[in-house]
Automatic annotation (TrEMBL):
Signal peptide: none annotated. It comes from the Bacteria. Residues 20-441 form the DUF112 domain. This is Tripartite tricarboxylate transporter permease. The chain crosses the membrane at residues 20-40, 47-69, 108-131, 138-161, 167-187, 199-223, 261-284, 318-345, 357-375, 382-407, 413-429, 465-489. Keywords: Membrane, Transmembrane, Transmembrane helix. The keyword Cell division does not apply.
Length: 502
């Protein structure tokens, strides 16, 4: 009951006019930057750090937190409507959200996304209040060795997301890992795969790669289509006709529940976060589905589960930060910088020294999620109307969208060129039957793998045995191995029983 009373006290803090105003501002900004690709929550929060110093510490963190989880709401919108991920954790929304939009169910896709995020956010907030501070102590045992094993597990999940033969998915994973090594080696200072081009010294930006792979390649696909997809869209424009019906809720209920639990647990782990949570949920739903072939073609379960998982993970990731001083991902790391700039050191003493900040931030998640659902649901009708734009007009609009987003990252035309090149290469890969999702996910995990693998080897004095002597690391590696082996055993059993493997 202490947690509930503390949460009520936190609501009293966040309902103060100034804090309520910054919670609303954070929700609006988060939604906007999620819809617009290129900027992303990390860059936006970094830009706003100097402004946050002028705010009260509690108001500053409420603002930055609202931008973070608000971007997850907005990020799925561009993924569903345009197949252009607004930010990294929204990549999974492309897989089934975009096919749903193309089949005339854009309103349902947007609606189930908003409701899944809202439900997961509310449940995760209460879970944080009840068990977060004590449960987060488990994160203390996650060092470089354990994080390496977690990322390896993530890579095996990435290979299971793509459609088609597994060998093609693993080729995409390998290519993604290769691209993630581009740039200057932070340990030796040597340039890798930069081809003496100064712009590549910092490596490829994930937003540039994502916009090229998903946005520009989609423009090329649209350009060669003869059929006008707008004819398949619903002619009804009443909001209630566009929202999920009873059958959609029945199909989405269990995936939402599983995604919320999975996302919350992974959000508490350093190195976990919204990205791993979203595609771990997608793989889980695909594995347990009786019709896995529906995934990637508009399965609502493939949207509801990951959207619940990424929002629950985003909010749970504040617990390692506030209770232990451990940033779970890059966005949380920037928010930690904002706290330090305010003269507040996150860690075990924060909940006792600054209870109004801790419980105010937790309570602001309830208010922020309520604001986001109120902001997003009425806009579904507007978003669906955008899909009635003919492909001949939509394709240039997507291209302009990507060019502006790419240029805004570093104010560089070189990034625009990279987007175009990546788009043509992605188009060629798609036409050759390769799925792009494993490549992008491997790219996102590659830098984490390299960094933690090196640190783990240093701790083990060059010996890899440390990765199997740690119980947590060994558990993740065993699960990763099972993820690889079990599909092969199933296929072998199928062949022996007289079936024909696909």
């Amino acid at each position: 009951m202490d947690s509930i009373s503390n949460l009520m006290a936190g609501l009293g803090v966040v309902l103060q006019p100034a804090n309520l105003a910054v919670a609303f501002l954070g929700s609006v900004l988060g939604t906007a930057i999620g819809v617009l690709p290129g900027l992303g929550p990390t860059a936006t929060i970094s830009l706003l750090l100097p402004i946050s110093i002028m705010l009260d510490p509690t108001a500053a963190v409420i603002l930055l937190a609202g931008i973070y989880y608000g971007s997850l709401y907005g990020g799925s919108t561009a993924s569903i409507l345009l197949r252009v991920p607004g930010e990294a954790a929204s990549v999974v929304s492309c897989f089934d959200g975009y096919p749903m939009a193309q089949s005339g169910r854009a309103g349902v896709a947007l609606g189930i996304t908003a409701f899944a995020s809202f439900i997961a956010g509310i449940v995760a907030t209460f879970a944080i209040a009840l068990v977060g501070p004590s449960f987060a102590s488990a994160a203390l045992v996650f060092g470089p060795v354990e994080k390496t094993a977690l990322v390896v597990f993530g890579l095996t999940l990435a290979a299971n997301i793509g459609e088609g033969p597994r060998i093609r998915a693993w080729v995409m994973v390998a290519l993604g890992l290769l691209l993630s090594t581009m740039g200057v080696d932070l340990v030796t200072g040597e340039e890798r795969y930069t081809f003496s081009i100064p712009y590549l010294r910092d490596g490829l930006h994930v937003a540039v790669l994502a916009m090229g792979m998903f946005g520009v390649s989609e423009v090329l696909i649209l350009a060669e289509r003869k059929r006008d997809f707008t004819s398949a869209l619903s002619a009804r424009y009443r909001l209630r006709d566009l929202l999920p019906d009873a059958s959609d809720w029945r199909a989405s209920g269990k995936p939402m529940a599983r995604g919320t639990v999975l996302g919350f647990v992974l959000g508490l782990l350093p190195g976990g976060g919204a990205l791993i949570a979203s595609f771990a949920s997608y793989v889980m739903e695909k594995r347990i589905s009786r019709e896995p072939e529906r995934f990637g073609k508009g399965a609502i379960e493939g949207l509801a589960g990951p959207e619940s998982a990424n929002n629950a993970a985003a909010q749970a990731s504040f617990i390692p930060l506030l209770c232990l001083g451990i940033p779970a991902n890059a966005v949380i790391g920037v928010i930690m910088g904002g706290l330090l700039m305010q003269g507040i050191v996150p860690g075990p003493r924060l909940i006792f020294d600054h209870p109004e900040l801790f419980w105010g931030v937790i309570a602001s998640m309830l208010i922020g999620n309520a604001m986001l659902i109120i902001l997003n649901v009425p806009l579904i009708r507007v978003f669906v109307l955008l899909l009635r734009i003919p492909p001949a007009m939509m394709a240039p609009a997507i291209l302009i969208f990507c060019v502006i987003g790419a240029f805004s990252i570093n104010n560089s035309m070189f990034d625009v060129g990279i987007v175009i090149i990546c788009g043509f290469l992605a188009y060629a890969l798609r036409k050759s039957g390769f799925d792009l999702a494993p490549l992008l996910l491997a790219f996102l995990l590659g830098s984490l793998l390299e960094q933690n693998l090196r640190q783990g080897l240093i701790l083990g004095f060059g010996s890899p045995m440390l990765f199997v002597t740690s119980p947590i690391s060994l558990a993740f590696l065993v699960i990763a191995g099972m993820t690889l082996v079990l599909p092969l055993l199933q296929k072998l059993r199928w062949r022996r029983s007289g079936g024909v493997a696909s």
